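can u pls check wat happens w/ D-xylitol-5-phosphate
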Amino acid sequence: MSAKDFIIAPSLLSANFAKLGEEVVNVIASGADWIHFDVMDNHYVPNLTIGPLVCEAIRPCTTAPIDVHLMVKPVDRIIPDFAKAGANIITFHPEASEHVDRSLGLIRDAGCQAGLVFNPATPLEYMDYVMDKIDVILLMSVNPGFGGQKFIPGTLAKAKLARAKLDAYQQATGRRIRLEIDGGVNVANIAEIARAGVDAFVAGSAVYGAGKDSDPQRYNSIIAALRAELLKASH
Ligand code: DX5
Ligand code: ZN
């Protein structure tokens, strides 16, 4: 994989919520690829964050893809709202949906790319019969609900397994499914994660925790450092 094929997706969860539009603009200007948008409902996960209205509000701030990570239960009711609010990618946790195949179909029908999210203890088998409806696999490397947690090392073996499944699928069909990781990603571990087969990286606290608040270029150096590590991993 060449270095420019890697996606860096800063999670807005660790951004300054009083300046959300500015945070979106600055992080993309600093070289990020996607905006990762964490939706929590205080039911499926023990935290409460942002919904479609906020997605709609930040939509005009960037042309970069908005990657909506739904940590909500139920799933289906809210899908069209995010599609209308300008989401490009919508992922959900299979345990949170009564009908995984239907939820994936609803996301595609709404014009978005669809994906499944696997918690640290959730088996990958959920993907096996719905590969044709999946554009992204998102592996949680922390338990969902909060930013700033520590990367769970067992996720690396799981990423290799997922990579093997996705490679076999690509060989059979020609279609590429992205492998994204979420939780505890930083400059020290991103290269090792890439070597396990991951090609899209959510980073919340590592990106938004970096730099001084007054500097509009404050995310340049952290994103450049992440990319430099990815360059090492691509050799
Ligand atoms: C956790 C969220 C993550 C979180 C990542 O439930 O899904 O996207 O913001 O934050 P860091 O990178 O700080 O672990
Ligand atoms: Zn997330």
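The pocket of D-xylitol-5-phosphate (ligand 1) is lined by residues 11, 13-14, 36, 38, 69, 142, 144-145, 147-149, 182-185, 202-206 (CB under 6 Å).
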